[in-house]
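Problem statement: downstream parser choked on a complex file, so we are re-checking the raw output for the guanine run. The parser issue turned out to be on our end (a line-ending mismatch), but while we're here, posting the original submission so the record is complete.
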Amino acid sequence: MTAQIIDGKAIAAQIREEIRADVARMQQTYGKVPGLAAVLVGDRKDSQTYVRMKKKACAEVGIASFGYDLPADIGQDELRRLVEELNANPDVHGILVQLPLPSHIDEETILGAISIEKDVDGFHPLNIGRLSMKRREPLFVPCTPKGCIELIERSGFTIEGKRAVVLGRSNIVGLPAAMLLLHKNATVTICHSRTRNLPSIVREAEILVAAVGRAEMVRGDWVRPGAVVIDVGVNAVDDPNDPRGYRLVGDVAFDEVKEVAAAITPVPGGVGPMTIAMLLRNTTDAAMRALGMK
Ligand code: GUN
């Protein structure tokens, strides 16, 4: 059996069309568009690329974006004051502080300073806390895990009752992905670097979310036949045949696993485009809420 390749680009494009329609309706009815503030600290190339892609995606659906590029040595108090200014700015409906922050800045302090109504990344401790509890609704769900769930459901797979395994326990992906799968009534196991007998646990998964950041770690014989495999990893590996000298691969050995799984996301073109689509969705939801449209 060869797996269905889940086309994240196509699903994200469909979601962006839904967002574009909401933004147009907002503009017609209220004369306003959603606004996203994107805060980048320091000069990490990967973070610069992500923020540039996010701002471009905003422009394509009619969301206004406001960029703040700050030096790596900015003080924590100065950064917190900027967040507070953005909290008070009525044209800004969503605030994104790109992670990771430089080590002299306490991430929790900065993320906790973002107004929860504008926390479109869903990283505020209150939003994460609500996500982690039964019958509590976070205002926003983190973008990458939300994108993983959308990929599964929009590809026609049900989550309820399934055995789900999440590889990785990061605050940005693994942990919230496990919570979302649990809310969808999957039976969830979270694996991490200290997990023993990893391949045998992964082999139980009917739904597998891999988010560990290790190139092609999940092999074909780790995967249960018929599983749905969502690969969040983005790892650069040397490739002398590629003009850039490297290529991007996921946490899953795609060529092996596609022969076993029912469905699999490619890297690139799987989860990546969904993360950005979900950020646009959350920003538009924030603006709709602020205007009383939701
Ligand atoms: N760094 C890696 N992923 C993300 C993300 O989704 N949002 C932010 N703000 N930073 C990140």
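For whoever reads this later: Residues 161 and 186 are 5 Å apart (CA to CA).
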